Amino acid sequence: MTTMPNAILIPIKRPAALHRLLVLHHACGSASSYFRWVAAFPENIEVWLIELPGRGRSANSPALSTLTAVRNHLMQLQPLLPDRYAVFGHSMGALLAYCFAHDMEQLGRAPAWLGVSGANSPFSPRPRASGPLHTQGREAILNYLKTLGGTPDEIFEHKEIAEMLVRMAQADFCLVEKYFPLPRIAPLALPMTVFAGRQDHLLSTGGQQAWSHASRTNVGFRHFEGGHFYLFDDANQVQASIADALNRATAEIESSGG
Question: Domains in the chain, please, with CATH?
């Protein structure tokens, strides 16, 4: 496995790949959550896993709990980006992927394509709950994570790892709960695809449809069987759909002379 500065991990190095795809992980996730998932991608896609502080190789660093801090952290990727790249994010990562794409567009370094998965639009109100998750106690947070799936059972049984998971959850949930929804801003000028599991109870019809306002170009929608972590259930099908969207975006760029 190859590592690069600023928490970029490239599990499978593919120098001849046509696409470079940056992947932003979900809340309480890390780059390691996607190592096996990456293997299902076709040979023409090289995946760059982007890992936030407070987990993985930077587990000793504090997790970032404000949107400004995360956006500033991700801005450090700008000098390392290839000429043509794309971005995909799942759940919290989808919201951050949108923010990153917007920030890069402002710098004239917009991605060729943006894929967002398992999240309502960043402009949509957060679902009402009994109270902010990031302010709740250890057991409440762990029980909530268990209902989502996506975390191996042995993690919850290991006291030290479970405590680290709770600290990550408090920071990540604070980030989502305090700073979203965002105010409406000018839509992006790049193609987007919205991915979701048909049985994902965290999503709403209105929240999904609101993604159509995030770009002034084509916004596609792809649905799969499964819940919030549908993308790990049938990786080959999801990867094929991402590859198709990337190829379409590339064809549009080349036909326009970009």
Answer: 2-127+183-255 (3.40.50.1820)
